[in-house]
## 1
Amino acid sequence: MKTKMILKILIGVIVIGGGLGYFTFQAMQSSWSYYYSVDEFSANISDMNNYSFRIAGRVKPGSVNRDLQKMNLTFTLAGTKTEIPVLYEGTVPDNFTDDIEVVVEGRLDENKSFKAKTLMTKCESKYKAKVE
Amino acid sequence: MSGLGNFALLLALFLSGYAVVIDLLGSLRGDQGLIKSARNATVAYMACLSVAMIALWVLLVKSDFAVIYVAEHTSRSLPLPYKISALWAGSAGSLLLWLWFQAVFLVMVYCKSEFKHRSFSANARMIANLVSVFFLIILNSDKNPFELSTVAPVDGMGLNPLLQHPAMVLHPPILFVGYAGFLITFAWAFGRLKTADEDNTLPLLKQAQRWAMFAWLFLTGGIVLGAWWAYEELGWGGYWAWDPVENSSLLPWLTATALLHCFRIYNRRSSIATWTVLLSILTFSLCVFGRFLTKYGLVSSVHAFPNPGLGILHVVLLIHVWVIAGVLLLRNYLRKKKDPPNARIPSNRFVILNNWLLLLLALVIFVGTLFPFLSKVFIKIIESLSTQAGPPRAPVTLAPEFFSKITAPGGLFLLLLIGLCPHLLRSGFNKSWRIILGVIAFAAVVTVWLFTCSLDSARPSDISQAIGWWGQWLLSGSPAIPCFILSGFVLVNLLADFVGYKVKKSPRNLRWYGARIVHLGVAVMFIGIAGSGGYAMEKTVAMRVGDKTNIAEYELTFEDLKVEHGRNFTAVAADISVHKSEKLIAQLKPAKAFYNASKKNVSEIDIRRTLAGDLYLALTEVDNSQKLINLHIMIKPLINWIWIGSFVMVLGTLAVMLSSLKQKAITAKDN
């Protein structure tokens, strides 16, 4: 009786754990990205080609260029010491301007320029926390 | 005025601290005088918070910009309703509001039922006041809404224009009523752990159940309103982005849903009793933790370890709570061992299953939300696991797809469980109905399958290919189709249940109908989620005046660009006419508004709504001189059923609550 019970529990754990593990693996594969600041990213830029990244930095004043005809946006993401050029095609958040903290997510292209898939601004209503 | 507010907050801190200590002493010594004094202190504490609320409101309406909070969230030209709602626009004010709701509920419940259940109330009040003490310390130091600036600005920064929307005015208070409502069940759980669980505490259990339902209702409403706001206002066409703020409200919702099912079958001699207590504590803990997570940059900060400052008090509070709960549980367990073993009764397996499922979902979302933080902690382990020479230490974030993928199977399983519900309950419908249902469900599955296959251009040529498709479709395909099938299954079953229910022991009443209506709402909502998630279409186009573009069966023409002036904003609106098979069906005006006080741009979207789906237009970029726009066009099939479904859920919950209040009135009459 007792071994039957243990067997039951064991099978249950394997089935649920396996299923959960499989789904977690599947889901993680496509959504995994490393989170860097601009300076950390630039320091390691040589071996960054094959990964998806999220980079936090500041929009360099005067670097923003919107092309309405091609529907893209280019700007320079600046850290304290280094900076990277960013190309973004997509909906630009309303509160995107010069000199604010943003997070971009995407990959490096061949010319070491960053092609962003998403562009996130730190929305004041939500992230009121002081950024050091 | 700010002095008064400050004083009221300090006094409130003193009073709630006093109440904790005196309640503890009183219940240890069994001294009724002390317990009474603690009760009075709690009432006074509520009064102090009310004074602080009024003081802040006066400052906001008077536009006293010497107060930092007022200057940061309002401006002179802001309309009065938004000045009033600015009380909860910032994190300090919203904490005050949350705390005030908690105090009011606490006084309503555990300072009133004093005479019958004095010691129970004292214990419940003690833990509730402990929570208040922690929150008040934060409010008095870290997040003080009455803090003065050295130089008062001439005008304030104005309310974030994104928040100038009716849904956003209502969303936070509704959510906070929910969070604060769970304090009551939380406090009940401690009272129940501390006090011997006798039959005479049954009214308190019923009361906790009603409060859980009340809080759940508001939490549901708040979440849906937030989602609706995101859809209407943020301009990206979605309603749920799985960001930490949203997740932190969904987590307590999931555990609270499990809790409601536990309350339903509560029996003090079954294992469900402990479950109920634990879920009550967990739900409120998640509310508190969610606040910490979102207000202190725990996951949004890129820094290796963000410095939460006094926010760490949230964690300290939770540790206190769980240590106390753990000690009490252990004590009760050791006592219970002496009971005869046959005194325990088994609980409903399906409710247990539902609980596990909801908790598992909550756990996955919890881990996913905290992943950036956890990965900072376990960075070395992750490094050693990856065999490739990857980039060095960096925290890992998970994109929203992670959450949608991982919650889909769980959500589908929940739907299946809801659909099976009438079959599983012993008092459900009879055999002939079950056969009819089986046939209908089977027919529905086959129809949907054939239909979806025929939609695809490449049809399966023979049966083996078809079976292969079937397998692929189930394993790797979009979860939208199984979601439709299961939702249909739920609807068919529930409708059959309404018609074919065999009245045996318990006749149908308002509660019976209410519970099923809630489930009906869930199914309707899932149809909306599957439709808008699985079959959405979108594109962005650059257009000049006179340009045309096509999406699905619609033809859109950019007619004109106009400048409009509002009270505190200037807007540029594009005139778009929508044709469907040569017939004009709508004139839409998506716009971009510029708010003067906050110097911010806001996209004002425009939607053509039908029950079949929305045509959603957002103006992403405008160049007025060249008459050039970038237009984001989206088609969101069935999306309105999400809002309809949640409305049905709210109606169902109201019916259940009404029936439970009726029950209460009847028992009160009998006594």
## 2
Amino acid sequence: MGNILQLANVSKVYGTKIKTQVLNEFNLEIEEGSFNSIIGQSGSGKSTLLNIIGTLDVPTQGEVIINGISTQKLTKKQLATLRNQTLGFIFQFHYLLPEFTVLENILMPYRMQNKKVTPEVMERALHLIDVVGLSKVKNNLATNLSGGQQQRTAIARALMNQPKIILADEPTGNLDSDTTDQIYDLMRSINQSMNTTFLIITHDQSVAERTDRIIEIKDGKIILDVQKKP
Amino acid sequence: MNFPFSVAKRFLTHNKGQSLLIILGIAIGVSVQIFIGLLISGLQDDLINTTVGSAPHITISSIEQNQTFDLTSSMMNSYTSNEELKYVALLADGSGFMLKDDENASILLRGGGQDAFDLYQLPSRLVEGKLPVTLNEIVVGSVLADNLNLTMNESVDIQSVSNSTQTFKVVGIVDLGVASLNERWAFTTLQSAQDFFNYEDALTSIEFQVNDVFLADEIASSLLLTSDLKISNWKESNAQLLSGLNGQSVSSIMIQVFVLVAVILGITSVLAITVLQKSRQIGILKAMGIQDSQASLIFLFQGLLLGVIGSLLGIGLGIGLILAFTTFATNPDGSALIPIQYDLRFISFSALIAIGSALLASLVPARKSSQLSPIEVIRNG
């Protein structure tokens, strides 16, 4: 299968007077439908990398190609559309909107397109709720959920627009080991059933070991790239 | 439903206490504006009505005192066709003495037609009887009637300064609202006065009331005159009243402007705080791909919703205040102390201004929200 994501010579420097080089001529290719993890110590540049891939941050130099489109020359509006339709985010903190219910939170990326919620779309949302095991609490406000339920809601929300890539920044960082296993299994099954590409930043060795490819970063460079044989 | 609108609505209903406070703020602002505005305009109308409501706004008389003049047909035509003029009262006045038994009283006998009677609001001021219709019928002021013990349908003699005497029949008694006029004035028909004073067809003055009292000076300067006549209007002789009214208008506008500024500042600061409170939500919405314009719209819609609901509530409150005022602040006879008109144009204007202000106030947070970068929110949690 082809590459869904490609980074070519991407560098990121923070600061103007005192410069901090976070990414240093970074090259990376991610295959469509793959299940990858990025590991590394704090400050190694993992989150910056994910933010740049997610078009939330811009590289100082280099090119990011997502689904065959170079993000360099896209306008803010086009970037927003790309994020809405091609990418899904899962963060360490769930960032659910506390004013809305589980179902409404999950529908949000779709409703942002100002399109009417058709029965098919509603069915998809309900299916996702079913997949993440939240059918019983779908009408609860996001604040009335446990940590694991909130994170599962965030995963379902990230999947709502059927994105090609899910970017997850320590999605299990705040969860206990049982819940971590549940979330991992959930992401893995989605990867297999929907062919969604996953890029997961993690500190959790057990999670990393279960992915198909482990990329280790240090000082803004890849120091280890292990691909498991299928 | 439009996505930003539904998010705005949810943000407002989720924080009910905060939303209610802003709505209450707008409502109180609008109600104060409506109450003060209508109260002061009612007060001014009342003052003007008391001062010039039953007095001529424009008077034409001869340049030389106590001289009569002839009304040309071209003048009369131009007056009757002028739509700014409410009443055109042709008057033949003269001084004399009313004699009864061995008493007498100095009077001003005023001869006029229906317009003159309407100008002085005689129909509503009749205490007894009717208005003069035929030759030598008179109505007299109430104090004059008391002083001479006049009764209805009594005949009295009036002696002019040129010593001619004529008998008139008292058909009515009026209360003109001013003691000095009640003591001296008597009204008769134009023909009776002209005959009695030997004026033939001549007049001593023409008095006008106009539809818009504040345009009296402009209208006066546009009226057709002959060279032997002079013209005056009420504004010349009431400069102090006018400057008082003006001062009132200015202070009323000042109060309204300050109320408005307070409302705008209130909404802006609360909405600005909401952006801070919601920056996490806005940031994540942006990461999920909401357009900047949609993110701004959320706050504009919040401003609009707050403005519309607050204004509607404010109109209700304002009208309630006025109702309470007109019900409880009354004259001894039960009529309202200050008669207030429900000026729908002013009320809707106040509401529109408040809605506009709420929108204006939400521009600042809307801009902030549009500029908010998702990366800051995600990085800082």
